[in-house]
Design brief:
- This protein is mainly β.
- The strands form 3 sheets. It has a 5-stranded mixed β-sheet with strand order 1-14-11-6-7, covered by helices on one side.
- The two termini are 22 Å apart.
């Protein structure tokens, strides 16, 4: 596993020239087909995983249940994943200069959603890629009158960025 990305960052795959993926639009959202009974008392959120082909050949992409893991809170507990409402990429050919997006609905205690880690492992044609990790938060309080503003989100993003910068500097010295 490589160093974590910040939600919104693109991650390229060296073994598949031109193929890249990102986790983005981590936000509070209700599922389109209604809440799952097992998620009673939990707060729903949505995350998108986009695969983009900037290469010269097509790639057959699979991004299904079991290939995306969502952890929340400081202890990294598993989020409730609503498979019924989620939309995956199942055997889709991504041609050059095209994208495909999976939309995942998950839920957890609202207090734990300021820290969300999403781990993705793509299957490209018949090969499995390395697992990649994105770190972020939902910013559930944005726009509300009791909001602590985006300082918490920015703080987490800055911490991850500083960590990555420190790792890069250690590797180049």
């Amino acid at each position: 596993m490589y160093e974590p990305n910040v939600v919104g960052d693109w991650q390229e795959y060296d073994e598949h020239a031109g193929l890249r993926v990102r986790v983005h639009r981590l936000e509070r959202a209700d599922p389109p087909r209604g809440r799952d009974d097992a998620a009673e008392g939990l707060t729903y959120f949505r995350v998108r995983v986009t695969v983009e082909n900037r290469g010269e050949r097509r790639f057959g992409i699979h991004l299904e249940d079991g290939q995306i893991d969502v952890r929340i809170g400081p202890d990294g507990e598993s989020a409730f994943l609503d498979w019924r409402n989620s939309q995956f990429i199942e055997g889709y050919d991504v041609y050059p200069l095209r994208r495909a997006t999976a939309v995942l609905y998950a839920a957890g205690p609202e207090a734990a959603l300021d820290r969300v880690d999403v781990q993705v492992q793509l299957r490209v044609d018949d090969d499995w890629t390395d697992r990649r990790l994105w770190a972020g938060g939902t910013g559930l309080s944005e726009g509300s009158s009791c909001a602590p503003s985006t300082a918490g989100r920015e703080s987490l993003a800055h911490q991850v960025s500083n960590f990555l910068r420190g790792q890069a500097e250690e590797g180049t010295a």
